[in-house]
């Protein structure tokens, strides 16, 4: 129950009963002067009443006693069934302090919430007096409480809980991934930019990359993907591999199957290799579990390679680098990206999405749309034809049942299927061109051109890769 005192720098004297002659009663006033004399502070809100206190020197001190009214939602205040009968926010302690502006406050039952409101009032009062060129005076707070009592321990316990709550909030705020501030919405709805979206496989949420993307303002949409790990755009699918996953996928052949599935449904399949650079950034330490250099992985940056000085670079068929090169040769549309940390990967993804359309659920390939084993070769053959690309080959598959049926179509039918006259003209000319067998002289010239030169090229990668039938030959032997 806080009480406020106003008008005196010190509180000296005794509080007497209302029947004492030193305490003015509040009879009905017959004149405005008597009313002002009887009521120190008129028109107080609910839960407050005032009287005068006379000290030893004969000075009268107005005292305001306040009890939290019902329904004020303060700690210790009773609840009210009908809150419309109360004066609402006017009964709050902060409103009462702003109205009375007391100099001394006595709390008979200290509450942490009351102390915080008094601190806010004291700061506002200090700022107001400084602005108005007045001498700022601090607000004195006194507790009417017994030492080592239950009330004191209850107050100290609440202070300790408040301190622990702030420490927990500071700790969580330092590690939270959600942005602390959100940009205000634009005033013109027509200028609202579409939110950047990335579809992420639910299994990838075990890593920290989705959280880093969310921190950069990208909307992360979790979904179960049948192929790939990240969908950046309708034509960009990313398969993320660590070094250990890359080695295992290359050895088992699973990466080949994943690249095949991505190449059939996306124009730009991407293989992302995410690994950490060595501590010194110059050498790559050979793992103690891999005594041979075949189990190592190196980052080649032009002339300088991040490998140890004594490591022998073997480009054999069983080498990981050779397998990766053969994978790129087999899938010419495959793009290989590398990243040192997940933070770099998040930066890379945001740059790849600049200026590109957002992916949608309707454009994602479903499990039932996967190509069967019977028509895989036919689709690969279809994609090799001029005028057919990853953008329009699905239209041909939906309208044409076989390659023989495609050959029998006329130009107008191809234009209707491909919805592009130029592509249809290229395909029609290719399917209906007249084949003329080459003469013997032309065949001899072609054979001479295909014959290798006497000089070996500077980097004969094809001659270094050992085939399965020539494992026993030397590194520089021909196949």
Q: Proportion of β residues?
A: 5-15%
What is the helix fraction of residues, given as a range?
Answer: 25-40%
Evaluate the radius of gyration: 42 Å
What does the largest sheet look like?
6 strands, mixed
Q: Taking strands numbered 1, 2, ... along the chain, how are they ordered across the largest sheet? A: 7-6-8-9-10-13
SS summary, helix count: 16
Could you say which structural class the secondary elements and strand pairing correspond to? alpha/beta
The low-pLDDT segments are 6-36, 80-90, 279-297, 301-310, 454-479
Family: Belongs to the XPF family.
GO cellular component, one term: nucleotide-excision repair factor 1 complex
Main location: nucleus
Keywords: DNA damage, DNA repair, DNA-binding, Endonuclease, Hydrolase, Nuclease, Nucleus
Outline the fold blueprint.
Blueprint: E1 2-5, H1 32-38, E2 48-54, E3 60-66, H2 93-100, E4 104-107, H3 112-131, E5 140-143, H4 150-175, E6 197-201, H5 209-215, E7 219-223, E8 230-233, E9 236-242, H6 243-252, H7 254-265, E10 268-274, E11 300-301, E12 304-305, H8 320-330, E13 335-339, H9 342-352, H10 376-383, H11 393-399, H12 403-407, H13 411-418, H14 421-431, H15 440-450, H16 461-464
Parallel strand pairs: 4-5, 6-7, 9-10, 10-13
Antiparallel strand pairs: 1-3, 1-4, 2-3, 6-8, 8-9, 11-12
Helix pairs in contact: 2-3, 5-9, 13-14
Region (Disordered): 1-40, 66-85
Family: Belongs to the XPF family.
Keywords: DNA damage, DNA repair, DNA-binding, Endonuclease, Hydrolase, Nuclease, Nucleus
């Amino acid at each position: 129950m806080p009480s406020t005192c106003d008008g005196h720098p010190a509180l000296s004297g005794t509080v007497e009963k209302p029947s004492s002659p030193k305490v003015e009663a509040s009879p009905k006033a017959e004149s405005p002067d008597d009313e002002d004399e009887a009521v120190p502070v008129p028109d107080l809100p609910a839960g407050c009443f005032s009287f005068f206190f006379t000290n030893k020197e004969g000075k009268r001190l107005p005292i305001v006693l306040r009890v939290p009214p019902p329904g004020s939602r303060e700690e210790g205040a009773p609840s009210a069934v009908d809150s419309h009968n109360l004066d609402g926010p006017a009964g709050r302690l902060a409103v009462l302090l702003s109205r009375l502006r007391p100099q001394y406050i006595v709390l008979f039952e200290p509450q942490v919430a009351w102390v915080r409101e008094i601190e806010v009032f004291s700061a506002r009062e200090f700022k107001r007096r400084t602005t108005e060129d007045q001498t700022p005076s601090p607000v004195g707070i006194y507790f009417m409480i017994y030492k080592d009592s239950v009330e004191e321990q209850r107050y100290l316990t609440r202070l300790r809980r408040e301190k622990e709550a702030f420490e927990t909030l500071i700790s969580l705020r330092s590690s939270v991934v959600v942005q602390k501030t959100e940009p205000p919405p634009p005033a013109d709805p027509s200028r609202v930019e579409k939110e950047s979206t990335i579809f992420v496989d639910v299994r990838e949420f075990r890593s920290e990359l989705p959280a880093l993307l969310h921190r950069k303002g990208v909307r992360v949409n979790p979904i179960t993907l049948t192929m790939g790990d990240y969908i950046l755009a309708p034509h960009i699918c990313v398969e993320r591999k660590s070094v250990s996953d890359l080695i295992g996928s290359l050895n088992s052949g699973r990466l080949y199957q994943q690249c095949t599935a991505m190449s059939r449904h996306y124009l730009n399949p991407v293989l992302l290799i995410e690994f950490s650079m060595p501590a010194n950034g110059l050498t790559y330490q050979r793992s103690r579990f891999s005594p041979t250099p075949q189990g190592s992985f190196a980052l080649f940056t032009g002339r300088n390679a991040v490998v140890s000085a004594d490591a022998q670079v073997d480009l054999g068929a069983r080498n990981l680098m050779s397998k990766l090169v053969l994978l790129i040769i087999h899938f010419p549309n495959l793009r290989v990206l590398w990243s040192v940390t997940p933070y770099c990967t998040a930066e890379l993804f945001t740059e790849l999405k600049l200026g590109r359309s957002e992916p949608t659920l309707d454009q994602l390939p479903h499990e039932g749309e996967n190509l069967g084993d019977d028509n895989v070769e036919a689709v690969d053959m279809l994609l090799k034809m001029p005028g057919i690309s990853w953008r329009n080959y699905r239209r041909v598959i939906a309208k044409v049942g076989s390659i023989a049926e495609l050959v029998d179509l006329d130009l107008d039918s191809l234009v209707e299927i491909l919805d592009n006259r130029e592509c249809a003209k290229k395909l029609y000319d290719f399917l209906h061109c007249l084949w003329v067998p080459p003469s013997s002289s032309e065949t001899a010239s072609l054979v001479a051109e295909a014959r290798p030169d006497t000089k070996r090229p500077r980097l004969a990668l094809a001659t270094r890769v050992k085939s399965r039938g020539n494992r026993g030959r030397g590194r520089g032997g021909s196949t």
